[in-house]
Amino acid sequence: MKVVEVFINYKIIMAKKYNNNKGFLIIEMSLAEAVIDCGFGILCDNCNERVVGENSVYYFAALNRLFCKECTDDIIANQERYSDDIPYEVRHYNHYAKILNLPVV
Predict the structure, then answer these.
(1) What average pLDDT score do residues 54-66 get?
(2) Domain of residue 75, residue span
(3) 62 in a domain, yes or no?
(4) What pLDDT shows up at residue 2?
């Protein structure tokens, strides 16, 4: 696949926890990390637009989905974080945190 070949040659390592005012566990990462390391596709799971050309993509652990910046901001603004979801959110966040060499929570 040509997209993956390009990423292999130009992989940028930048994964980090994305802080937000509601405390959602979100990982900001390069598209190469999302595709190569985590196995995500190249579409935002909310708006279905291609995220190729985006500087960063955002893994939203509570929803177990990958989003573009605009959709991430919209979801943070409009979602509530429920305590019942936290074990699910932590489990999914830690799965990808380990893959991306980030500290687990």
Answers:
(1) 94
(2) 2-99
(3) yes
(4) 53
